[in-house]
Task: structure prediction
Amino acid sequence: MSFMNGDLSRAYKRLRKKNGWDNSGATAVELRETMIRLSPVPLGMAEEMADFYLNDPMDADTVYKSDEILELLSGTWAPENSLLESDDWDFLKEQVNAWALEMDMDVVTDVMKAVVSYG
Result:
């Protein structure tokens, strides 16, 4: 799967170059922080999502999927070439249900529509 051109994918490429292609640990830590910072959701939810989606070992598909989640939360996601699977949709649904009262209702509505349509 080729990279998305999202913010997280660009950060991943930049971090791998900065940290060295073999230093996946440093890259993973910094990419997790980047995903949390870019997530338009409460901090606790962003941390839980980063822990779930940025698993180890990190590869192109992992970053692609994480970028999809950020795009979904920001309203720019398109289902074409999606790598999201049923467990991803289930986790996302659980997170939105748990954090809905602290989230922007437009984000909650958009994400839940996608969960129902594609999950």
The two ends are 20 Å apart (CA to CA). Helices lie at 7-19, 24-38, 43-53, 60-74, 86-99, 105-118. The CA atoms of residues 68 and 80 lie 11 Å apart.
